[in-house]
Design goal:
Elements: H1 3-26, H2 32-57, H3 59-73, H4 79-94, H5 100-121, H6 128-144, H7 154-174, H8 180-201, H9 210-235, H10 240-246, H11 249-262, H12 268-285
Helix pairs in contact: 1-5, 1-9, 1-11, 2-3, 2-4, 2-8, 2-9, 4-7, 4-8, 5-6, 5-7, 5-11, 5-12, 6-12
Length: 291
């Protein structure tokens, strides 16, 4: 597929994760612990099936990828699956009290701020644009959480910020991967025992419906599993700066999905905060290509 189509489908899949999760939890079709468990289980199965299909079509390429993934796994640890689980679980619980677009905005803002903060800790010297971007995004968060009638849930904000931080750490750890598709499938698989513990911890609050289960499976198998495959394929035709920039569309897609399918409103506070946060992310992530 052309890079434009792959990129568009991947971004829609990422936005769909927020829409599906919010729709399932907002309608009380499923509890957040069960949604997380089913999502990660479905994602692991989806990626397993995709990898097997890839192995049948290109056995040599798949064998080398498996070898690279196996070699890499010997020097990694529990941190990637732990961060994946933390991201997915706090993501689900946060959407108990956040609108779709607000949650996506907080998530992507926290991802970029945490990634830049960690790179600074590791010795990176930020450019002026990065400092300005982080300051602008942080100011957008402060404005979003100012007391008022349309202030988002503080608990939801904290949980989604933790989700973004976990995804930021997961992304940094993933940069070391020589075979991202195989490593992603392994991380989904290794996160499953943690989802079992989570489900048992909240078993007294669990409730399931056929629609809730279907939404969680769709989130895991399609929006997560297939979405990551599409994104990795799209990355082969995108520069690093463009890949970072186009992800700014995800919160916008998520907000529009919340309006269309859940009758959520978009407040002036959200629009102003979105301009500040997404503008800050753009300054943090965008690098003009040298001519």
């Amino acid at each position: 597929m052309p890079t434009t189509i792959l990129t568009s489908l991947a971004l829609l899949a990422f936005a769909a994760n927020a829409i599906l999760c919010r729709f399932a939890l907002g309608e009380s079709d499923i509890d957040p612990a069960s949604f997380t468990s089913i999502r990660l289980l479905s994602g692991a199965f989806s990626l397993f099936m995709i990898i097997n299909l890839q192995r049948q079509k290109t056995p040599r390429l798949s064998s080398s990828s498996i070898h690279a993934s196996t070699s890499h796994s010997s020097i990694t640890s529990i941190y990637p699956p732990l961060m994946l689980f933390t991201y997915a679980s706090t993501f689900s619980f946060a959407y108990m009290s956040l609108n779709t677009g607000t949650g996506a905005l907080i998530l992507y803002g926290a991802v970029q701020i945490s990634m830049l903060s960690l790179s600074i800790i590791n010795g990176h010297r930020p450019q002026m644009s990065e400092w300005l971007g982080m300051s602008l995004a942080f100011t957008g968060f402060v404005y979003l959480m100012l007391p008022g009638a349309d202030m988002p849930s503080l608990q939801g904000f904290i949980l989604m910020s933790l989700s973004g931080i976990a995804w930021g750490i997961y992304s940094i750890l993933g940069k070391q991967s020589q075979s991202p598709l195989f490593d992603t499938q392994r991380n989904f698989l290794y996160a499953l025992p943690l989802t079992l513990i989570l489900s048992l911890s909240f078993i007294s609050q669990s409730h399931l419906s056929s629609q809730g289960i279907l939404l969680a499976i769709t989130s895991g198998a399609l929006a997560s599993g297939v979405g990551y495959v599409l994104w990795y394929a799209a990355l082969t035709g995108l520069s690093g700066s463009l890949a970072a920039a186009v992800q700014l569309l995800v919160p916008i897609f998520a907000a529009l999905g919340g309006v269309l399918w859940m009758n959520e409103s978009i407040s002036t506070r959200f629009i102003t905060a979105a301009i500040m946060v997404l503008g800050g992310i753009f300054l943090i992530s965008y690098r003009p290509q040298s001519k």
